[in-house]
Amino acid sequence: MAGRAIWKGYIHFGGFDVSVKLHPAVKEERIQFHLLHRRDHIKLKQQMVCAYEKVPVPTEEQTRGLELEKGKYLLVDPAELEQVEPEESRIIEVHEFVKTEQIDPVFLDRVYYLEPGVPSKGYNALAGALRDMDVAGICTWTMRKRSYLGALQMSGKILRLNTLRYADEVISVKSLELQEIPLAEKELKIGSDLINQLTAPFQPQKFENEHQKKLQQLIDKKARGEKIAILRPRRLKPTTSDKLLQTLEASLKKVA
Amino acid sequence: MKNRRSARLPAKLSPTRRDESAAQGIWSGTISFSLVAIPVQLVKAVEPGRVPFRMLHSRDYSPLLRRMVCPKEGKIVPPDEIIRGYEIGPDKYILITDEELEAVSPERSRTIEIVEFIDMADVDSIYYDHPYYLVPAKGGEKAYRLLVEVMRRTKKAGLAKFVLGEREYLVAVKSSEGALALITLHYREEILSDEEIVPEEGTIDAEEKSRLKKIIEGMTADFNPDKYADERRNKMTKLLRKIAKKRAPVEAPEVEEAEGEGPVDLIAALEESMRKVKKNR
Questions:
Q1: What is the pTM of this model?
Q2: ipTM of the complex in this document
């Protein structure tokens, strides 16, 4: 079941408006642990502590600062920053449309389902147009005092809004300073053949979070007072560059 | 470089660290496909572009650190006195050590094993969770380059599962501008159904649709993320620059280096780094 609507607004572009409601599209459920004091198993709390006095600091003694140089802070009152808070608005303004495939996954952040705000023909027409053209609308809006950049997309029977990261939030591949290493055409050919052999359709239902179940089993075992066998993590021997071709050939033989 | 203007500012006032080396690894291990094993490190691919404010103590302007504190004694608890517990009742816990946690899926805690390759275009973007890069560790450079190149040629991505801290991640590894990008994916059961909110199956007004298509066509361009700046962040930076001119900074007392932002423990630190990037979304 989709999550409850968290916000209402209007998609707007070129004289066109359609009202929509945002619903979360993803929900994660995880086993929760607490951190305890080893001695007496008292549940610990995460708190802000003073680096100098080493004592917990109550909220009313906390203030915001910006480090200008080492150890020197510019004090900033939250009230001073209010003037740069975005204005409240209900408009999801579409600035342009792009081919969906052009949006690299690295930019995609959160995804919301868009329910029609009121039954409207506009919603279905927009959904149909986006589907036919395979485009996404690049849009901006303000929600809960924050401004967002997003991609408006059609999927299945419903419109979705995917928040996008800003370009300067993405770390460039260049900064990784990767080495260029020449490869032999034979290595590339066998490598490609191998990948093609190992290719299957994407079936997400095939993958379960087995670990979560095993973790629960571990907890149950310990609750019954059973001993836990400690297994060392598996570590593989790296394929060195002189063994690469040989290893690829052996791999291909195995799968072919 | 786009941010030339801010070069005169203290480095930290410029909120993004795009050019800073991303080499701080979150995890190290091996990525494998078939018999090929490549030692790698997992590094960040995105950095939330927030203005890096620090919380300070208003009495002495010392920076504040996030620490685990015992509520009974009101004291900081050092990492070696902390243990993970699973709550089974009020104040009743099952204790789990790091070693026990790592033993849950030992075959996956240090290895990202690609079990099959897929066409990335088949993956509905709703599954994408968080992006990272993999960088080769010593000795893995050539095999790394090979995997990047053959995935680029075949336009395929590798599917794998691996365990980090308390969680097991389903991931897609793809070739991205000469690097391996790793994207954590949601599990099927984490995707909420849209059944109850899909619009009623009405006839589409053909006239309205073709009118919209014309408008859309006129507004179609190439995706260029550089065009869109975080206006609010830019305004904030400008405002802070103004404030910095008027107001003298305060000075924090000196603290020994050892008391920096040290991790509570390794697993917690890993978890924390994953969680942090998630929280900032």
A1: 0.84
A2: 0.89
Q: Is residue B72 part of a domain?
A: no
In a domain, B75, yes or no: no
**Whole-number Å distance between alpha carbons of B194 and B255:** 53
Residues shown for chain A: 256
- Output the CA–CA distances (angstroms, integers) from residue A77 to A80, A96, B248, in the order listed: 5, 37, 14
CB contact under 8 A, A106 and B106: no
**Domain around B112:** 4-64+80-86+95-192+207-279
C-beta of residue A42 within 8 angstroms of C-beta of residue A59: no
pLDDT tens string B169-228: 999 999 999 999 999 999 998 999 998 898 877 778 889 999 999 999 999 999 998 888
Residue B225 sits at the chain A interface (C-beta within 8 Å): yes
Give the type of residue at A136.
A
CA-nearest residue to A72 within chain B is B251
Reading the block at residue A249, the tokens are 């050939």
CATH number of the domain to which B105 belongs: 2.40.290.10
Looking at the domain assignment, is residue B202 inside a domain? no
To which H or E segment does residue A17 belong?
Answer: strand A16-24
Q: What does the pLDDT read at residue B257?
A: 55
User: How far apart, in whole angstroms, are the C-alpha atoms of residue B181 and residue B178?
Assistant: 9
Instruction: List chain B residues with CB under 8 Å of A224.
Output: none
Contact A86 B232 (CB under 8 A): yes
Helix (H, G, I), strand (E, B) or coil at B112: strand
Q: How many domains in chain B?
A: 1
Instruction: Assign A233 a pLDDT band (cuts: 50, 70, 90).
Output: confident
**Overall average pLDDT of the A33-44 stretch:** 92
CATH number attached to the domain at A7-24+90-168: 2.40.290.10
Phi, psi for B279 (deg, rounded to 5): -60, -35
- Gap between the Cα atoms of A209 and A206, Å rounded: 10
Q: Is residue B199 part of a domain?
A: no
Residue A157: what residue type?
Answer: K
β-pairing verdict for A7-13 and A91-99: parallel
Phi/psi region, residue A156 (left: phi>0; alpha: psi -120 to 50; beta: rest), is left
What is the model's pLDDT at position B204? 81
Segments making up each domain of chain A, as ranges:
7-24+90-168
Pick from B116, B133, B105, B129: nearest CA to B40 = B133
